[in-house]
Amino acid sequence: MRARIHLVLGFGLVGLLVSVILVSFVWLPYDPLAIDLDHTLAPPSLMHWFGTDEFGRDVASRAMLGARISSFIALQTVVITIVAGTLFGLIAGFLRGWTERLVMTVSDALLAFPGILLALALIAVIGQSRHSIVIALGIAYLPSVIRVVRAATLSIREREFIEASRASGDGALYTMWRHVLPNVLPPVLILATSLFGWVVLSESALSFLGVGVPAPIPTWGNMLSSARPYMASASWLSIAPGLCIVATLLGINMLGDALRDRLDPREAN
Amino acid sequence: MLGYATKRLLLAIPTLFLVALIVFFLVRLIPGDPAQVMLGEGASQQAIAALHAQLGLDKPVPVQFVSWLGRALTGDLGTSSITGQPVGALILSRFQVTAIVVLVSIALATLIAIIAGMIAAWRQHSQIDLAVLGAASFILAIPSFWLGLLLLLLFGVTLHWLPVVGYVPFSESPSAAILFLILPITTLTISETGVLTRMMRSSAIDVLRLDYVTHARAKGLPERTVLARHVFPNAFAPTMTLVGLTLGRCFGGIAVIETVFTLPGLGRLMVDSVLARDYPVVQGCLLFVAALYVLVNLVVDLLYPLFDPRVGLS
Amino acid sequence: MRKAILALVILLAVTVAWLLPSQREPVVETGTVLRARINADIASSEPGTKRDANTDAVMMHLVEGLVAAREDGTAGPMLASSWTVSPDGRTYRFKLRRGVRFHNGVPLTSADVVWSFHRYLAPGSEWRCKPDLSPGGIAPVVSIKPDGAYGVTIILAHAAPLFLTELARIDCAGTGIIQRQSVGPDGRWRYPVGTGPFRWGSWHHNQYIELLRYKNYRSLPGPPDGNGGGKRALVERVRFMDIPDDAAASAALLRGSVDVLDGLAPEVLANVSGATGIKFTSSPSLDFYCILFQGRDRLLADPRLRRAIALSLDVAALTRVATHGTATPDSSPVPAASPYYGAVERPLVRQNLAEARALARAAGYRGEPIELITSHSPPEMYDDAIIIQAMAREAGINLKIATLDWASQLARYSNGDYQAMVFGFSARLDPSLSFGLLAGDKAQDPRKTWNSPAAIAMLRQSIATADPKARQEIFDRLDQLFRSDAPAVILYNTRRITAMRSTVQGFRSWPAETQRLWNVSLGGKP
Fold this sequence. Notes:
Oligomer: heterotrimer
Shape of chain C: globular
Radius of gyration of chain C: 25 Å
CATH class of the domain at 288-493 in chain C: Alpha Beta
Helix content of chain C: 25-40%
Distance between the termini of chain A: 10 Å
Radius of gyration of chain A: 22 Å
Structural class of chain C: alpha+beta
Strand content of chain A: under 5%
CATH architecture of the domain at 288-493 in chain C: Roll
Largest sheet of chain A: none
Largest sheet of chain C: 6 strands, mixed
Low-confidence stretches of chain A: none
CATH superfamily of the domain at 288-493 in chain C: Dipeptide-binding Protein, Domain 3
Number of helices of chain C: 14
């Protein structure tokens, strides 16, 4: 089946990412923080597969370490946000009434803050660190998840098998868990994979605005951001992190799509 | 429906109040002194103290909040600490720029997403599906500021087709204004199409499998009608929610694009005023954007039953 | 739902239709416009109050003071044609030039000078030089009185050889004389009505400020000299465009949307050099970038640790990489371009990792993390921190970088709330002012890192002495004391680079770092 391509590519790219991260714990071509002021901005070569940056640091090593850092930040943020968001979204969409209104009011209040600005302000107050970025972006994206899950729940709860379930006396929680959640999973999965990408890109935007992960720790986002002045003169500096971001996001999204197809309880095989 | 809308608007008031409260105190928590920033690093203590008094920053914070809120309720958002411009007028003039870019971009992105998503879902697992999905996944991975600079260098510097910096208000010259807006709009459209396409495709796939679609086809209705009348409205609902969220997200996140293309927009104003500790502008902007969010979400929720008639307004 | 799609399609069609014919329409401007760039909107149109470097540059086109900074930093005649100083050094009698008119046509008289000074020194005034000209400052003013229509007498509390240099300070708008109509009848500031070669045009916030040629400008004879000398507006309009992003600014220059890009960020230099139709000029600045240490910190109170950090650095390599080969490494607070930069100030501190490690150990340092604050504005400051951290690491000194935004960094600097901080000071025209940035009583002014009574005494002496040879000796001694105390580590003096289109003629950059667009014309060969 042609759908296998999604699965194969998805697993392939994600597998590549995971193996790079695992390898990075044990070995890196060079020390990602070591500067070499006599060999700055060197183009890719056998010695430095992705060249060196403006401080002579090996770009490949930094990209590998960046894989670990960027992925962990994104993963932590996505897990926290999706779990909390699905919970609240389900409850709001299924139970409706006052519960829904309460959840949505609080969610809307948070949503009213432009995410980037909220992150900027929070980080300026808490101080720059990997944790503050996870917290700031998590808070910024939570309402979006709640909203989407609630919308999906609203659509699903009207379907016949749900009514059948309630009619035969199943409790609300049981119905939510057994019937609603599996049907809500497809959009949640899509959202989760999209969210992973948004977090990576948001971290990149925050670096652009000057409040990303503190130096000299590399993330793909801050590598891309500091490569901007050299876009024309040292393009490898932007291509390396850019390619990593694109490949990773592509893989994750494809994996999400493929898993979504598998998990769909109504998929006719 | 009018009753529902009124109820929602009334419910929004405590939300907005909460937002105002949070903004006011959050922005003062950030280290940094507006007077110091304005007077520069060689300024004397007396000058800073004098400026504090002038800006009303020497009073206790709750007092500042109450007086600000009181004036805001009458429509007076104060004046910028730095330029002295009235905040309300400043926000509106900047908003014009941002609104054009965001609305046009999202409209275009939504249109492309609907068409591409529906086709991909309709021909799921085919090569077209793969191409659409692949393209969508690819472009949503590109950071907007990078894409923006790429387009700027290509169309502005290398090809000389479009201007690189500057802005002309619509009222002065619509044709010139559009010229300056093509690149930012293109950048934002490309950036947002990917996510919307994927969501549209996903929900369209769901709906295509439902019984009433099979029934509609069995009834002999042309495929065109089935897609437009039965599949699209239901498939669009979750995507519409996402569109609403995207609109909201863009009004803040557009700061990056406005910086790259040097547009005097609201996003840049917000970021700049936070960095400059221009409290009245930050407060005014966030209150304005919050009100905008409430409005957009209300509209989305009102439109929802139109697309999915089984969902009633609560 | 079809209606919704139809509506969207119509909207799209209309948008497309609007776009097509306008693609080739240029934006036409009347009169010659010289387009320059500032990297942030100006802070205020009131001279010398809320200001930053961009504001200063714009102001100097509009207003002129009694004296103006010469190219070498000393004060030369501007609105005052000559002056005498009493033997006790306290009384200055200025003779005003005749025939000078303000932008609104009103002739300049001593009444305007007195009015301007009183306004600057008034109790509520935010004028930057007010503390220096008030009791306790370096040149406290006792009285300012007209001496006929074209004379002004200023009496100081005591002799102050730096009084005229102070008046010429660019960050105080050169003590520009303004006309009463700059202020509205309600007492609120309108816009500067001065005597400069350009007059106020319009201020489109966060887009541009436009100045217009002042047709009746009366120039001093001779060639231009700093902010004085012969000045002429050679274009109808000057437009300072607000382009915060350096990459966008360099793209604009290449595109031809900007004529003069002053203060080109070193990191985008590579984008622009070698491009056709672009030429460059540069000059060394009288500024300096350094690492400030908080002497009250438990660890950094020991001068041995501070000297260890200084010795761990290869300042020449750091400067070369962080500033892309544009700045000049300097280990002395006296800038390399200063006439007082002599044999004592010249030697650079050489990297010596072994001695650095030994000194750190002697100071009892055991690898505790030390916070080094930096910022992204300018980008070179961030690069400095990365390199400093890496070099210090090799000497066993553990620096942790904290990147703040400008406002937070300024707050921490002003309160002395830091351990170590990378900081840059803009140009100071005299070494006394440079040393004065560092030396002072910490209890009174938390910004001063050098709390040494000996240094403070020598600094006061340098301000009170007029003879250049004597001053050189004082600066030499100050420099030696500075190196042994190491309250800070000086890194480099920047070089201000200006890139401009080849059609621009007559632009000259100078050590005071402000862009000067008088005597500049468009219309050389492209």
